[in-house]
Design brief:
Structural class: alpha+beta
Number of strands: 15
Order of helices and strands: EEHEHEEEEHHEHEEHEEHHEHEHHEHH
Shape: globular
Oligomer: single chain
CATH topology of the largest domain: Aminopeptidase
Helix content: 25-40%
Distance between the termini: 26 Å
Length: 376
Amino acid sequence: MKSGRTLLTFHDLNVEVEEAPGQELLEHMHSTLMGQPGGLRYHHTSLEERMMSGDEKYFMYLRKSGKMMGSVGFCGKPSVTDGLSHDSWLIRYFSIKAPMRSVPKKRKEKTDLQDEQKRSSVLGRFMQPVVANPSQLREGEQDPNQPSIVFAIIDQTNLRSMNFSAQMGLETVGEMAGFSFSRLKPKKSNRIEQIVEADKKQVLDLLKEYYSNYTLFFTEPVFKNNDYFVIKENGRVVAGVQIYPVQWKIVDFGSRMANVAMRWLTKIPWVKKRISLEELRFLAFDAIYCKPGYEAALYELMEGVLERTGTYIAMIMMDEDSHLYTIFRERQKLGVMHKFMGTYHADIRVRFNDMPEKTRNYFLEHPTYIPTYDNS
């Protein structure tokens, strides 16, 4: 691992950049309670692999006299949007270790932010120049005019993060829905096949076509550990999904009724063997493919993958304006855990740096691909 670099210094404050998460950040992220009051709240218990994923990643720390006050991760994802090549930087693992501001009571929009620079948090004032020119995260001389975007998925009820993103110049280009798919007695499907080398090109071609109308679709994590599963008919893939294991510790389902019901439900022996709130194991579903007219095969595939892996819950995230979301909205049948976990709504927030207006409008007019693995 390369040593950290200092980007900015002001008195006893400095901003450092490292290419891997430090132990202090890992411990902090594991202890951080995710989610918002009134909704699902949980602790991450299996973050290390995801924090290390991606070909280009940087972790920026704000330190005061050597003590970490806040941090944010940037994952570089070079992109092509409407024919324009540009950098894309996903903000992940934003955290504030010490309180820097009071909890906001309203969401701020652009009209509220004319003087926000003067009132922004300490972390915000240090982050703004980096968000405006994220290429400086890289070592060596960089082109400050390289077109780029910085984007994040932010819970609509998380006013602190929403307002902080507004200070950083991010704006909403769409909305995301995150929800669970569960089967406590998943049915086995003999039609499921794990990806083999000979089928990878066919599947990649199908995925590129399927998501050709989306922004920010990346093929880099597809086929990770060869955990892509398909159903074929007449030798052609009609449904496919990539899976990643994730683990949470559930603290709160968002309502007293849901908490009581889940505590009661997980005391039933056959349920207890499947679901533990202390170690909730589930799959993240990504790179979903469904040939039009084969929606039943997609559901068969997802349920069969749960059965094959000995898992009972999966998480899915997608743009609410996408054709894929229409499938789940219309078919429903998401399983009993969806009744307790509900649907998580978030804004897709983007800052455009030196991007043509035409490209910005393309983002506003097209759905965004949401990788569940990166955001769960």
